[in-house]
Predict the structure.
Amino acid sequence: MTQEPEFVVAVDWGGTWNRVNVVDSNGTVHWENRVANSLSRTTEELLANGERVMREALDWCGDRPVAGIGLAMAGPIDPETGIMDRPPNLMLLDGVSLKALWEPVFGLPVWVGNDADLAALGEYYFGAGRANPEGSDAASREEAVLPRTLVYLTISTGVGGGVVYRGQVFLGASGMAAEVGHMAIESGPDGPLCQCGSRGCLESLASGTAIARMAREKLAEADGTASILARGRPEDVTSGHVFQAATQSDPLALGIIDRLVAVLGVGLTNVLHLYNPDVLVLGGGVSEGIQDLDLMPRIHSLILERAMSGRHREFRFELSRLEGSGGMLGAAMLVWLNTSLA
């Protein structure tokens, strides 16, 4: 008699670290390890390091059946072939299909997805989506009253997103849906230049990179010399420094934070109108600063003011409950959804 699969090998492959975990169907992590990608100078080295740590995970599983391998990758991916499409932080994998490469090597199905998409999937089943309407959390994903539509935004170095509709990631025609960081907030020629080549994108106004850039610009002006941020070198200022200065009522930092709140109020209202989610989740490094300054109520209020109808206002607005592990748990869920356990 064939045993039901007990585990999934789930991988969160970013630009710096390749994290590998063994996960069960309830999202419990039983084994984990990671390898630094910065040590790999060639595609072959990068792939060899990834294969080695996944073999360690499978060795740990021993004779216990594994449903498959799920990979959350930092970068655009063709959802059908699994081919990486010029991933900015993993260019050594450009044009590589880990699915085609590793299925014959491991003898297991391999499922690959974008890390922001899979972070949304992780939140849906194991994080913010698990909260019941009464406010309690279900003990397992099978018991949870799951949302109809969850939208997740990660606000960090850049701004990315993912949408889950009735339990499945919404990918669009070619797997490139939910690029919410590149919606236009300021359409004029004076809008800040975004790394995508356009001006005035949400990412160019609300990311950690944008916050640090605005601080440096303000410090270059005469009114920036009195700021706490002026005590160090302007080129060393990060978004974390801005949030820290804001906790000390620094006027320059508070002005930047007020701008951030206004921009997110507009951008998230656009998201609300586009996807009509019943759960809207913020993650990423900037969201930690938002939490520290208790900015969620202010942002929520702006969204409610701009929302076009009462039905649009019927949503939960939450911070990520899985920060740091959402992509990995989403990768695991991608496998479970494609097995008989889903």
Remarks:
- The chain has a mean pLDDT of 92.
- The longest helix spans residues 251-275.
